[in-house]
Amino acid sequence: MITDFFAPLGMKIAGGIALALAIALGITLWRYDVVSKDRDELQAWQTEVWGATKLAADRPKLAKDQVALQITYLGNGVDLLERTIADLNAQAEQRAEAFAEAQELAAEREKELAGLRRSSDAVVSRLRALSEREGQCAVPDDLRELAEGL
């Protein structure tokens, strides 16, 4: 009589345990599938990163364990290039400023030389005019000094 009373309860417990095990197995298999997909995606991503790093570093035989170091080297190289470009741009700006100053000085010097050329042309014209005079006359001392430089 007691066995009849507990038999259905034992079956219920066994059925509950079997159901719990089935659910646990289902969750485990589902979780394994999710983890497996995540692992596969991670491996695919790592392969892409490895390939991109080999290409960027121009090292086709780069080992997978050297990828992180190589990325560090590439980053350092980019930083160095950025600093070098900034330095070269600063030097170019300095040269542009120096060139602009030199152009201003050249323009000022050109004005000075144009003035000297006009005065020189005037002296030459005076000397030519004197040389075209008929007859002989004494050459003034100031003209003689001017003629010595020509």
Structural class: mainly alpha
| Number of H- or I-type helical stretches | 3
Strand count, sense and barrel status of the largest sheet are: none
Distance between the termini: 149 Å
Order of helices and strands: HHH
Number of E-type strands: 0
- Taking all Cα atoms into account, the compactness measure Rg is 49 Å
Shape field? rod-shaped
Give a quick rundown of the structure.
This protein has 150 residues and is mostly helical. It has helices at 2-57, 67-131, 141-148. 86% of the residues lie in helices and 0% in strands.
Description:
This protein is mainly α. The chain is 86% helix and 0% strand. The protein has helices spanning 2-57, 67-131, 141-148. Helix 1 (2-57) packs parallel to helix 2. The longest helix has 65 residues, at 67-131.
What are the defining features of this structure?
2 domains, rod-shaped, 86% helix, single chain, 150 residues, mainly alpha
SSE topology sketch:
Layout: H1 2-57, H2 67-131, H3 141-148
Helix pairs in contact: 1-2
